[in-house]
């Protein structure tokens, strides 16, 4: 974020940063919706009151958790949080002339793995054979069909911290039938395990695509889920995607209404590219640091209307 701000300053662009953790105590929105005419929207904090009517672009990125007054009765916290969130969500509608990276509801829609996989396939991207089931028999049949080459991962992308649990839910191999004995307790995603030739991180900014791949000689030592280790410890280098794949990726992100996202793609030992998953607000700085790709500059260009620079 500081890099983007420095670039916007360099371009001579005015900007305002609204942190979720400032709402609703240290910052607030003042909104007027007249019977006829244009909505009036202001953001106010202890320093200033600013009109948002001239906002031309919005970077909707990781708003942070709302902070509430210590004087607020705890029984009202859920209500106040819901009221604040609904105002926040409505900004997308109230700033129709601004372009968004990304629109709030597009972000939410695209964060669902089922949406991702189905739309990816519709846009010409290959996906691993996947089932979601609560049937032990169907899970067993799938495991046997794939000769045990099966992984499972969470369907929800909600962080474990939301449930007061440390860590994250990694993708793991389903080693034996005993592992799937509890599928009846919850919808469970099972997916064919793709044999990797290399693993790619792809970042999309508008219509620009940045791809980086892990050195193939390093692949055998990778865990099933590369997030289990420090991502910067992997030997990533810039990677040229085939043009047909780039076209499918841009069709995919356009269909989802995203102007920014990061995604994971696996190149199989048969040289086929498989879409794995997508993060509408995924990190990019570590890829930029490892490869020298100008991702921050592309984001700043997009926000300032310099897309073709």
Fold and architecture overview:
It is built from eight helices and 14 strands. The strands form four sheets. A five-stranded antiparallel beta sheet has the order 12-11-10-13-14. Strands 6-9-7-8 form a four-stranded antiparallel beta sheet, with helices on one face. With 309 residues, the chain is an alpha+beta fold. Helix 4 crosses helix 6 (243-256). The longest helix is centred in the N-terminal third of the chain and has 18 residues, at 77-94.
Quick recap:
The chain is an alpha+beta fold and 309 residues long. 27% of the residues lie in helices and 23% in strands.
SSE layout:
Elements: H1 2-10, E1 27-32, E2 40-45, E3 49-51, E4 57-59, H2 77-94, E5 99-101, H3 104-110, H4 113-122, E6 130-133, H5 136-145, E7 150-153, E8 172-173, E9 188-192, E10 196-205, E11 208-214, E12 236-238, H6 243-256, E13 260-268, E14 273-279, H7 285-291, H8 295-303
Parallel strand pairs: 4-5
Antiparallel strand pairs: 1-2, 2-3, 6-9, 7-8, 7-9, 10-11, 10-13, 11-12, 13-14
- Protein structure class: alpha+beta
* Low-pLDDT windows of residues: 159-169
Task: Say how many strands there are.
Answer: 14
| Arithmetic mean of pLDDT | 88
Tell me the radius of gyration.
Answer: 22 Å
List keywords for this structure.
309 residues, alpha+beta, 5-stranded antiparallel beta sheet, 23% strand, globular
């Amino acid at each position: 974020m500081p890099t983007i701000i420095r670039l916007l300053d360099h371009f001579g662009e005015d900007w305002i940063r609204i942190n979720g953790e400032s709402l609703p105590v240290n910052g607030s929105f003042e909104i007027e919706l007249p019977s006829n005419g244009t909505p009036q929207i202001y953001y106010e904090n202890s320093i200033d009151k600013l009109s948002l009517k001239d906002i031309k672009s919005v970077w909707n990125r990781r708003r942070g958790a709302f902070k509430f007054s210590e004087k607020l009765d705890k029984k009202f916290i859920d209500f106040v949080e819901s009221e604040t969130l609904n105002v926040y969500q409505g900004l997308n509608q109230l700033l129709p002339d601004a372009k968004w990276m990304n629109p709030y509801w597009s972000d939410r829609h695209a964060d669902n793995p089922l949406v991702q996989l189905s739309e990816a396939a519709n846009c010409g991207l290959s996906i691993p054979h996947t089932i979601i089931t609560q049937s032990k028999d169907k899970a067993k049949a799938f495991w046997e069909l794939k000769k045990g080459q099966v992984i499972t991962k969470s369907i929800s992308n909600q962080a474990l911290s939301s449930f007061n649990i440390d860590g994250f839910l990694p993708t793991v191999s389903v080693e034996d039938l005993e592992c799937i004995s509890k599928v009846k307790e919850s919808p469970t995603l099972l997916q064919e395990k793709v044999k990797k030739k290399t693993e790619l991180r792809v970042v999309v900014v508008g219509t620009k695509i940045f791809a980086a791949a892990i050195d193939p000689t390093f692949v055998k030592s990778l865990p099933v889920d590369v997030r289990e280790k420090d991502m910067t410890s992997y030997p990533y280098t810039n990677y040229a995607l085939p043009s047909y794949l780039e076209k499918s990726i841009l069709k995919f992100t356009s269909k989802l209404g995203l102007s920014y996202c990061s995604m994971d793609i696996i190149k199989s030992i048969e040289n086929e590219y498989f879409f794995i998953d997508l993060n509408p607000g995924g990190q990019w700085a570590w890829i930029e640091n490892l490869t020298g790709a100008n991702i921050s500059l592309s984001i700043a260009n997009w926000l300032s209307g310099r897309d073709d620079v």
